[in-house]
Amino acid sequence: MLKDLRSLNYKEMQTEIINLGFPKFRVNQIFSWIHEKCVDSFDEMTNLSKDMRGKLSEHFYISKLTINTKLVSKVDETVKYLFVLSDGEYVESVVMKYKYGYSICISTQVGCKMGCKFCASAIGGFVRQLSVGEMLSEIYTAQNDLNIKINHLVLMGTGEPLDNYENVVKMLELISDENGQNMSMRHISLSTCGLVPKIYDLAKLKYGITLSVSLHAPNNNIRSKSMPINNTYDIDELLKACRYYSEHTGRRISFEYAMIKDVNDSDEYALELANRLKGMLCHVNLIPVNNVKETDYVKSSVERQKKFIDILSSRGITATVRRTLGSDINASCGQLRASKRNK
Ligand code: SAH
Predict the structure, then answer these.
(1) How far apart, in whole angstroms, are the C-alpha atoms of residue 273 and residue 308?
(2) What pTM, to 2 d.p., does this model score?
(3) Hey, how many other C-beta atoms are within 10 angstroms of the C-beta on 229?
(4) Which atom belonging to ligand 1 lies closest to the Cα atom of 112?
């Protein structure tokens, strides 16, 4: 069976290439074609002989995505891709332009097992894990297509990154490899619904990536109703893991809180949240909940959002409302893939 060269780290690639009888210096060349110049085929590796390229293609392939749909926002240049994988499955990625450069939000799984009630990605259930090479290809394909250098990465698309832990960690190593894209770990955020044991594992790696935690509720009662994971790891366990993460890495935790009208947005809940987060190195990111066709959650009003922030701030917890990008192109996670499936 052919192996995906894009899913191998430097050491693995070195072993494979040397086993094929290639001299060692070829490893750097091939690594650079795949992870620095981001080519999708052996034919583009012009400093290798035809024989060498032929030999590579007898043993390997390079995972590759095809662009099925590309939507460019007229309001803020956000670009949303719907990619097709080699088995015909779809994944989404979004490229956003900020003052500091380009950022990409990628998917880590096809579908998701977590079943959060407000989330479009949960609707069709879980299909499969994305490989290391497929996740990297989301970044490389977008970068090639737009002819830009992407220097920030968020794992906040479809899927639960910590439920694809090994592949995600390997992907993080590769995207930050100095012989490849050399992306700074400090420019990477990983968002989780709260797989507690994996938060500890990630903390121990001391990568310095930002951990975003989808909290969305001030107490177990509310959280368990919309997030099944809360029945396995409750808020106290989750926050203990978050404290451990920030103490171990020195990084501030970013808590995601989708504001849902009459569900989690009252003054009382803001106070409860502030008490829970007291003393933690953290920031609260309020997200006006996106209306997903299949759910009946409604956004909180702007006044509600402001009041919620005021209460948190007055208790020493910094909070902001997340800026919405690409609102005209369905840029939130899962929406495009879901619309494809419903056709
Ligand atoms: N599984 C990971 C990452 C994917 S979801 C996680 O749970 O964090 C990315 C973010 O979008 C999460 O914070 C998620 O809770 C949030 N989200 C999902 N559906 C949403 C919706 N309808 N409105 C607002 N935020 C939503």
Answers:
(1) 10
(2) 0.95
(3) 22
(4) 1
Catalytic residue, candidates 105, 242, 282, 333:
333
Contact 35, 180 (CB under 8 A): yes
- Residues forming beta bridges with residue 104, ordered by sequence position: 95, 153
Distance CA 156, CA 11 (A): 28
For β-strands 150-155 and 101-105, DSSP reports them as parallel
Cβ burial 72-107 (10 Å sphere, 16+ → b, else e): ebeebebbbbbbbbeeeebbbbbbbbeeeebbbbbb
At 216-255, the pLDDT tens digits run: 999 999 999 999 999 999 999 999 999 999 999 999 999 9
Query: Where do the DSSP E strands lie in the chain?
Result: 3-4, 60-61, 66-72, 79-84, 90-98, 101-105, 109-111, 126-129, 150-155, 188-192, 210-214, 253-259, 282-288, 319-321
- State which of 155, 156, 199, 336 you would mutate to test the pocket of ligand 1, scoring each by most atoms of that ligand within 8 A of its C-beta: 156
Type of residue at 212? S
All structural domains of the chain:
3-61 (1.10.150.530), 68-341 (3.20.20.70)
92 catalytically annotated: yes
Over the stretch 29-60, which tens digit does the pLDDT of each residue have? 999 999 999 999 999 999 999 999 999 999 99
The average pLDDT across 129-150 equals 98
